Amino acid sequence: MMKRINKTSLAIAVSAALSSSLLFANSAIAADETGTFSANVALTTDYYFRGISQTNNDGAVQGGIDWSHESGFYAGIWASNVAFGSTNIETDTYLGFANEVNGIGYDLGWLRYNYNDTDSGSDPDEFYINLSYSMFSAGYAYSPDWFGSDEESHYIYLGLDYELPQGVGLSASVGKSFGDTYDGYEYVDYKIGINKDFYGINFDLSYVDNNLSSSECGAYGYSKSNCDGRLILTASKSIDDTTASSGEDLPIAANVALTTDYYFRGISQTNNDGAVQGGFDYAHESGVYAGVWASNVAFGDTNIEVDTYLGFANEVNDIGYDVGWIRYNYNNTDSGSDPDEFYINLSYSMFSAGYAYSPDWFGSDEESNYIYLAVDYSLPYEVGVSASIGKSFGDAYDDHEYVDYKIGLNKDLMGINLDLSYVDNNLSNSECGAYGYSKSNCDGRLILTASREF
User: Which of 294, 313, 314, 394 has its CA 20 to 30 A from that of 207?
Assistant: First the structure.
């Protein structure tokens, strides 16, 4: 059986990060003794794992949060959208130790692959060791029970990273998957690519492939296209220490969030499962801005939402204003039905309000309107409280106009913002169904989110 599906709850993983952050925040030990947090985010045209697409050759949003100690110990959580039926998110948790001896770097640890809508008992654990020297690297990974198969999995690889002129990086790797779990279908994967940093964003263009035949690919439960060779473009950014400056002088910023549920105007977009979210933004001193943001979703074979936007924000007499356009894009849908929305937001002191309008909501040829009011207030100990209420109305709602609301608490700990909020709406079961959602998508719920902008 190949790498496929399962997961422990993202809520558990984020809660673990929360517990660790609270421990460090309340400790009297200096920050360099308690370790530091870092964050990373990536948008890619395909998520491949050991040479095979995990997203049916569609795009992916990926990101995570890591803790590391000066001794060499580290731990972290990383997530990506995937496409395996109703399984739409992979959340990996890991723990390890890395250091160097006589110029040779070593890294050994444990990794658990977790997926939603699967039996957690089949979530595989993998143990690994990686070595590096100069431009070369090599590693070995072992699982005693690969995806509940009761069979062993092994993976070895060799890698090369070489710096070309003009700050261009060249990378290449070759790996082999073998062991009882592969049932005679051992295979080799390889990758070669170039990368370069622009304004703090790393762009990587790589070709990946493997030596699996169509029948061998099918034996692993994949379609042939998942195993085809392909070019992959990835834009990524990381910050090594979230308590330090994130380079605000750069014109492009990044953001990443891990959340127990992605809600939009009071309704879950992920069937009450977790989400990984992130994006990149460009802002000019004039007030003009543009950006891209993505999240996994769960609408049949549609598993990723990618939003693009353009706007202008400024302030007059302490009143902030923000006007712009946003387009909601989804994979495996008719692009003509992806909606455009125009918005205006106002803010003063702790209060904010806004209005959004779409002339053709999801290809319905009908108008959608959304208004909201919000308040953000700072409590003692730098704890924030936020509350908002909004209303969705217009011809597109077919007499099922509704109100949504949210109330929550948030606090920054070690550079990571933690938010615990309750969200709900006034939709009945039948009205929720009229929108194509199941009842549980519209139920009230607590949502925990860990996020970082950098």
Answer: 294
Same fold, 10-238 and 252-453: yes
CATH top-level class of 252-453: mainly beta
- Residue 430: DSSP 8-state: H
Show the CA angle centred on residue 268, arms to residues 452 and 385, nearest 5°. 50
Residue ranges of alpha helices (H) inside 26-94 are: 31-34
Angle CA(6)–CA(451)–CA(197) in degrees, nearest 5? 95
All structural domains of the chain with their residue ranges: 10-238, 252-453
pLDDT digits (tens, 9 = 90+) for 318-334: 999 999 999 999 998 87
Residues in the chain: 454
Q: What is the largest CA-CA distance in the chain?
A: 72
Q: What share of the chain is helix, strand, coil (3-state, %, to 5)?
A: 15, 60, 30
Residue ranges with strand state E in 261-339: 263-264, 267-268, 275-283, 288-299, 302-316, 319-330
Collapse the DSSP code of 378 into the 3-class scheme (helix H, G, I; strand E, B; otherwise coil) and give the result.
strand
Is residue 236 pLDDT above 90, yes or no?
yes
| Fold type of domain 10-238 | Porin (2.40.160)
CA–CA dist 214, 22 (Å, integer): 50
pTM: 0.87
Residue 60, strand partner residues: 44
Nearest to 217 by CA among 205, 204, 227: 227
Residue of 309, 360, 362, 306 lying closest to 330 (CA atoms): 306
Paired tokens of 219: 């034996």
At 212, which helix (H) or strand (E)?
none
